[in-house]
Amino acid sequence: MLKDFINIVFLLFQALFFLIGLYFFLTSIFGLAEKIYGKDSKSYLPVKRFAIFVPAHNEETVIGDIVDNLRHLNYPEDSYDLHVIADNCTDNTAAVAKAAGANVLERFDSKNRGKGHALQWAFEKVLYKENCEYDAAVIFDADNLISKDFLRVMNNKLCDGHKVIQGYIDSKNPDDSWITMSYSIAFWSANRLFQCARSFLGMGCEIGGTGFCMDVKVLKQIGWHATCLAEDLEFTMKLILSNIKVGWAHEAVVYDEKPLNLIQSWKQRRRWMQGFADVCSRYFFKLFIKGIKDRNIALIDCAIYTLQPYVILMGAVMLFIPFINIYIMDYDMYVISARVAPAFFRLYGVTQFLLIPLCLYYDGKLSYKLLIFYPVYMFYCLTWIPIAAEGIIMRKNKEWNHTIHTRKVTIHELE
What we know:
CATH topology: Spore Coat Polysaccharide Biosynthesis Protein SpsA, Chain A
CATH architecture: Alpha-Beta Complex
Mean pLDDT: 87
Low-confidence stretches: none
CATH class: Alpha Beta
Helix content: 55-70%
CATH superfamily: Spore Coat Polysaccharide Biosynthesis Protein SpsA, Chain A
Number of domains: 1
Largest sheet: 8 strands, mixed
Strand content: 5-15%
Structural class: alpha/beta
Shape: globular
């Protein structure tokens, strides 16, 4: 009886992983199709007025660079304002930002800490007014640098009818270490194989935490209230439940600073997995059930996306299935569990491993140095397994861990 139960559990587990893996692989192919068959946005006059928000906690080292960068975008100066949110700062972030030319909003709240709370507070001060003069809000992190045409691209997307748009998250420091290179490969491939694919299929993209734009009317209608450790994911789920899809702007580039070492990276990614597990527990069934009722694949896609930490652990289990003792299972079940399923797992892994360089070549990111680092990227991927486990265990811990940013680079060095 116990053996039969174990057999059934293993088969169901592997069938679920097979379906999810196949789904992600098939959808990722459309990211390459978008490069060939995707439609270019129309060009419009710069008619939209933007409020740019940069939440910053003890970022005196890098805040001056992004303020200077944002003050010199290729967009009419009187059509956008920059608001730096100096959130619970104990250094000179506010003074440096003000000296560089930004409007500074200082916030002190030791109880409600974190980026989500800071943005909620700033939106209430600047946007939630009857006579609000802004058409859209744009969010950046303090360590970012922004392509000069970012607002022009967002203006075009808004004029095309999009209400929320995510920009292309690039890397500010890909060559600093094996960790920064691995991060960069992950983000570059996600831009093409995940975001572009969903844009091409019309399913809606995911907000990536920085470099995104929101119509102010939509923000007021939905309300922000995204204050967990993955505020971007939570807000994406709220949008899709209100039938608002996130658009994609491949030409609106934001350069993000990646952590330099494994310890910093571990803490940041654990926070992401905590947020994913938290959002999954609150939104997965809402999304999935509504998606089934409405026959809306975009809702189901978002529901599956929230499963990320659990899918990572499922992949980890798949690695160990071939080592299960044959005496635990019937022979026929053993053949399926220990031979057929791992064969698919290896095929899926190898195919994805080969697909990533192709997509990087498509976007002009492939280099000899990257190919040398690429095998190390596999180890980086394996580190997600314990990180995902930690994130699930610690999902109820809402304490925000700040990632220190120190990499001083100007936009002129990147572009």
